[in-house]
Amino acid sequence: MPTIWLVVSLFVLSAIGYFVGRNRALQSAGGDTRDLHSLPIYYGMNVALTALIPALSVLVIWVLAQPMIIDTQVSRTIPAELIPESSTRGLVMSDVRRVAEGLDLAVSLGGMTEADSQAINAETTDVRARLGEYGVALGSDVRPEVLKAAQTYRNLTATASLAMNLVVAVLAIGGLAFAYSKTHKDFRARNVVERGVLALLIFAASLAILTTVGIVFSMLFETLNFFSLHDWKDFFLGTTWAPNFRGDSELSILPLLWGTLYISFIALLVAVPVGLFAAVYLSEYASGATRAFAKPLLEILAGIPTIVYGLFALLTVGPMLVRVFGRGDNGLLGVEWMAGATSVLTAGIVMGIMLIPFVSSLSDDIINAVPQSMRDGSLGLGATKSETVRQVVLPAALPGIVGAVLLAASRAIGETMIVVMGAGAIAKFSLNPLESMTTITTRIVSQLTGDTDFASPETLVAFALGLTLFVLTLGLNVLALLIVRKYREQYE
Amino acid sequence: MNDMTLVERDVETRKTKISATDVQVYYGETHAIKDVNVEIEEKTVTAFIGPSGCGKSTFLRCLNRMNDTIDVCRVQGKILLDGENIYDKRVDPVQLRAKVGMVFQKPNPFPKSIYDNVAYGPRIHGLARDKADLDDIVEKSLRRGAIWNEVKDRLDAPGTGLSGGQQQRLCIARAVATEPEVLLMDEPCSALDPIATAQVEELIDELRQSYSVVIVTHSMQQAARVSQKTAFFHLGNLVEFGETGQIFTNPRDPRTESYITGRIG
């Protein structure tokens, strides 16, 4: 029975539970809702949730855990000496899984009976050919031990699925019966449901945090793999980024970090003044009508996919900069400083444009949070509007604005598509903003999308880069949040 | 209440500082102030009393054109400061507000040091020739605000760190630092405890030596204690305006009597 039907029947059972619970509560009160401790809906919800939640949670955990446990068990049955030298245990296990799936398919298509699939023997039958009839393509002939493992795998899966269905059904029905038996007019169903809702909220909150932890760990393991293959001193302290396939790559983060920070710096140089001035205009000077019109318009910028910004960099900004700074005598300045469209300046300007709504929208909120009494105080002393903004409003909002800028900086550092298309691919230390440079994010993309061996340091370096980037932006975000929080305490 | 024997207070005629004639104020469609005529004398404390929402704060804010900052607010009529219409096109509201200072209901020190709070006005108006001059102005203003002794050792501390009463006196010091001719106070004691209130009231009485003070208050005792003239507002109308002693002991209008005896409000 596919798991989906189990889920559907769980929900049906829970719906039934809702009505029987509600009715029982009403009956116990003689049909008078005023005699109930809680509204009838709470009694129904109590029964429905008690039937549904434990069963559903067990189902989810089981579905996630079952393949892992069975994998380990089956893997243990394959002796180490039977694993070919060119292969690994993981590869053999994926063969096993594919054969098992093939047998499943063959049985479900009616080409094999269940008994056949158990009795089939690799020494007498060409398993690869037979499974091929059902559209299951196998890379090599099926060896006896793989077939045997596959059969074990299928048996274990079948048993486990049966056990799962049973356990879940018992839990659901048991939960329903338990809650039903407790349903009585004096039962505090409302409080119980309230606790259930609280648990749901806690679950949602912890899910987000656990995901972050999961991301960090998955990166951490691959990063440790990388450092076991590559010297950490070269990674953190080296000066050259030169991956190659001979195995003596120089993989240092520093040139990439330089490119990243340089481009982010230029982006902030564009985004902070423009965004801040826009925010000051919108929150202090613009009339209600202008604000209602201009603010959403500015925020549309934030909704543009970054790949579109990348195209803008590649097709418009880059060539425009070349026309100004390049082409020798044909250019606008008559200089030959810029050769190609990709450069630090191109990526920086476009990324800055991308960050403008980010900075302006955050700063606008922060400026609006400055109490009106501050402005009144300044205006009442005979200050003009711009003096008030410069000397009272902005200083009062400064910590929040710094926080906004740091958040923008961490977005700039993590930005990928714009730099992939606008910055170029050469890793170097240079102060010239008209040269192309590369960033951490672009290198992660290029190291992972090639067809190199996944276990080589050239690929694994992507995880080390990713983790460094994560730590960097995390640090910036934490700093920004600390500053913003400190600011918030000031007026409450 | 000794304060009520105000009939014998000094009532010599003084020069008129502000004269308002037929002032109307509209908030969008609402007619907030109707036909108000008031003469505010120099070196006098004038109190505006009346129930909440009667327009006394609105009228106060007309006197230094703070209502200009509210989009939907329109002011009609004539308000003369030293014979010059402040709503004339040639008058710069920014210059006007330097001459007509304002202290607000809630203490609103800027998030700057105490020194910078007081120096703010003199700096933007260029009142000080040099640093020493500015120091003098700050000290003089803080003394006038009756807070010098409490803060003289920590002028660099943030103004927001003071207690509520100190903050309000700092705001008064900040307002007098620009040498205004008139000081408008919008319920300056409503956020303060009785001790701080007493300090501020004492201060108001001293300020009367040099300025014309207009104070909006909900406390009739306060009006009786600090003011020489009292105006009673009700539903946007100026009901009665006269000597404080006369208003509190012998009101001419039955509405004034009802209000000061606590029957309407």
Descriptive notes:
The complex is a heterodimer of chains A (492) and B (265). By secondary structure, chain A is an all-alpha fold. Chain A has two domains: 3-187, no CATH class; 237-491, Orthogonal Bundle (MetI-like fold), CATH 1.10.3720.10. Helix content of chain A is 74%, strand content 1%. In chain A, strands 1-2 form a two-stranded antiparallel sheet. Chain A is flat, with a radius of gyration of 32 Å. Chain B has ten helices and ten strands. The longest helix of chain B is centred in the middle third of the chain and has 14 residues, at 131-144. The model of chain B has no long low-confidence stretch (mean pLDDT 87). In chain B, the strands form two sheets. In chain B, strands 6-7-8-3-9-10 form a six-stranded mixed β-sheet, sandwiched between helices. In chain B, strands 2-1-4-5 form a four-stranded antiparallel β-sheet, covered by helices on one side.
What oligomeric state do the depicted chains represent? heterodimer
Number of domains of chain B: 1
Second rung of CATH, namely the architecture of chain B: 3-Layer(aba) Sandwich
- What is the CATH C-level name of chain B? Alpha Beta
Number of strands of chain A: 2
Sketch the topology of chain A as an H/E string, one letter per element: HHHHHHHHEEHHHHHHHHH
Based on helices, strands and strand pairing, what is the structural class of chain A? mainly alpha
Low-confidence stretches of chain B: none
Mean residue pLDDT of chain B = 87
User: Order of strands across the biggest sheet of chain B?
Assistant: 6-7-8-3-9-10
Please give the order of strands in the largest beta sheet of chain A: 1-2
How many β-strand runs of chain B? 10
The CATH topology of the largest domain in chain A = MetI-like fold
How large a portion of the residues of chain A is in β-strands, by DSSP E? under 5%
What's the CATH first level of the largest domain in chain A? Mainly Alpha
How many domain units of chain A?
Answer: 2
How many DSSP H or I helices of chain A? 17
How would a crystallographer describe the biggest sheet of chain A? 2 strands, antiparallel
Q: For the CA atoms, what is the radius of gyration of chain B?
A: 18 Å
